[in-house]
Amino acid sequence: MASTASASAEKDVTEEHLKNTGDQLECVCYGLGSFSSCTAARYQLAMLLLLLEVLQVSLRDCLVYDPIFSSGEQDVLRELGMTVLTENEEGKRLVTKPTLFYLMHCGKALYNNLLWKNWSLRGLYQLVIIGNSFNGMRERTVERVFKQEYSYISKAVDLCEEKMLPCPSHMIDVFSDTAVIAFPPHILHKVPQTNWAESPEPEYRDRQDLEIILKETQS
Where would you find the membrane-spanning parts of this chain (predicted)? Predict the structure, then answer.
């Protein structure tokens, strides 16, 4: 019941934000984890499937990737009908249509890279993210590090609206700190054009604590 309620809440926020676009919604899921061995990842996969159902998103329009997926897990996802990506994009995916990103407990760098790649009024408007709260990230990170290393999340905090999702006590490890994050036009249109002018690609000094697997470090 709790999962159904959460999926319904996610559906309401997503549809409200994207109802005027007229385009078919696409879904991208990064960092799901090894669902063959991790119970939390299995719950998160179940939530994703439920969400796709209530949003009426075709399984083939759900793109999934995690560098730790085994070949068996990739086969399972393909058998479900999902599209398994073969390249580690590090979150740097440019959206060209309304896209829901399902990023459960992913590293901050992944969110930061995604925001950088779509750092424009049109780009952010087409994004809806289900993942960790940006406000929560800010509260848990040293301010100097947050602004320097994760500058796009730092700026996005003031450009987005977050709706925190209910999390039952026995699911804390699975869905804690999860929010639906959207970028409403009434906020984006108030931002000066200079906000979009300079958007250098993120660089991360401390790669040992980066929380994501980079392409260059994959074996």
Answer: none
Other Cβ atoms closer than 10 A to 215: 11
Nearest alpha carbon to residue 50 among 24, 11, 12, 15: 11
Domain count for the chain: 1
Our CA angle for 67, 72, 214, nearest 5°, is 5
Within 8 A by CB and 6+ apart from 65, the residues are: 29, 30, 84, 85, 87, 88, 89
Nearest to 116 by CA among 28, 14, 200, 31: 200
- Name every residue whose Cβ is closer than 8 Å to that of residue 217 and which is 6 or more positions away in sequence: none
C-alpha–C-alpha distance, residues 73 and 137, integer Å: 30
Is the pTM here over 0.85, yes or no?
yes
CATH number assigned to the domain comprising residue 138: 3.40.50
Range of the domain at 27: 2-217
* Cα distance between residue 180 and residue 14, in whole Å: 8
**Which CA distances in Å does 102 have to 35, 72, 183, 199?**
15, 21, 16, 24
For the ranges 12-21, 50-59, 163-172, the one whose mean pLDDT is highest = 50-59
Angle between helices 2-18 and 39-55 (to 10 degrees): 50
Could you read off the pLDDT of 109-118 as tens digits, one per residue?
Answer: 999 999 999 9
